[in-house]
Design a protein that fits this description.
Length: 125
């Protein structure tokens, strides 16, 4: 884990990155062989904040998952993306901002469309 952190720090500084995307947190946990998940995640999130870049961490959940426990508490923001069956044969991508620390935001679902290289959102129907 320490080698990965040093490598990421070097990449961020050398390339002047503004955004870091980690796909996915469970893979990081496995690679780091976390023994005390709660404590190690706390320090990992703190380390990410110290990088001074916007970090997106991908976590996949199933329909039966009740919440993300530590991740939900530690994150400054949570964006939920899902697929919703609409009618008999259609599926709609949905997005919503569940949490954005320090901001007043709409927590409703919006439909998310991607066409010709452009994302568009609209109120979900």
């Amino acid at each position: 884990m320490e080698v990965s952190k040093l490598y990421l720090e070097l990449l961020v500084k050398k390339n002047d990155y503004d955004i870091l995307i980690i796909d996915s947190l469970p893979v990081v946990e496995i690679m780091a062989k976390m023994k005390d998940r709660r404590s190690e995640l706390f320090y990992f999130f703190e380390w990410l904040r110290d990088l001074s870049v916007t970090t997106f961490i991908i976590i996949e959940t199933g329909e039966d998952d009740k919440g993300l426990a530590e991740e939900e508490f530690l994150a400054d923001g949570i964006i939920d993306m899902s697929m919703k069956v609409v009618g008999d044969v259609d599926v709609q991508r949905r997005i919503r901002c569940v949490k954005m620390r320090g901001a007043h935001h709409n927590m409703c679902y919006f439909s998310l469309e991607f066409k010709k290289g452009v994302f568009k959102i609209a109120p979900a129907i």
